[in-house]
From TrEMBL:
InterPro entries: Alpha/beta_knot_MTases, rRNA_Methyltransferase, SpoU_MeTrfase, tRNA_m1G_MTases_N
Coiled-coil residue windows: none
Organism of origin: Chondromyces apiculatus DSM 436
GO process annotations (BP): methylation; RNA processing
GO molecular function: RNA binding; RNA methyltransferase activity
Record bears the keyword tRNA-binding: no
Record's protein name: tRNA/rRNA methyltransferase (SpoU)
Length: 170
């Protein structure tokens, strides 16, 4: 569903989008490439994620977000501890190949979950891995070790929509 932005203020567009928001959130922890963070914000907007948590002080590239950051609920946390306190009680699913307990295809997606993505070099921090209810991997073929984080986030959100969003079947 597309909301026409013609003649509406940013606040009015955000108000129109609020009841359409999906039942998942995205958290990006210390991603080093500002373009990747911006691309994830843009993709999260396309799936109307409930909110986007940015953990750490790394900047994002607004041009990569294509202006979508102004319509999103972006919540910044200086570190893992403040993020974990803010999402206490929510189901956390880390996306991390090296520490995966199961694949994307096997993992249930409970209501209100938060998908966590780590930095391109270091993945998720040990503190976040311990806090995750599940850690999943996206199946890969070939010799490459990992997907670019922005691509992985897009695949995860697409699978969430395929399973959970009745609008995806329309």
């Amino acid at each position: 569903m597309k909301i026409s932005s013609f003649g509406l203020s940013t606040a009015e567009i955000r108000e129109e989008l609020a009841p359409l928001r999906s039942d998942f959130s995205i958290a990006i922890c210390r991603a080093k490439n500002p373009f990747n963070i911006g691309a994830i914000i843009r993709t999260a907007h396309s799936f109307l994620a409930k909110e986007i948590f940015l953990i750490g002080s790394e900047p994002y590239y607004e041009r990569a977000a294509m202006g979508m950051q102004k319509y999103e609920n972006i919540v910044e946390h200086p570190d893992e501890a403040t993020f974990l306190a803010a999402v206490a009680g929510r189901h956390l699913i880390g996306v991390e190949r090296d520490h995966a307990r199961q694949t994307l295809w096997e993992s249930p997606f409970p209501s209100g979950l938060v998908f966590l993505f780590g930095s391109e070099n270091d993945g998720l921090s040990p503190e976040l891995l311990v806090a995750c209810h599940d850690v999943i991997a996206i199946p890969m073929y070939g010799i490459n070790h990992s997907y670019p984080v922005a691509i992985a986030a897009g695949m995860i959100m697409c699978e969430w929509a395929r399973r959970k969003d009745p609008r995806a079947r329309a």
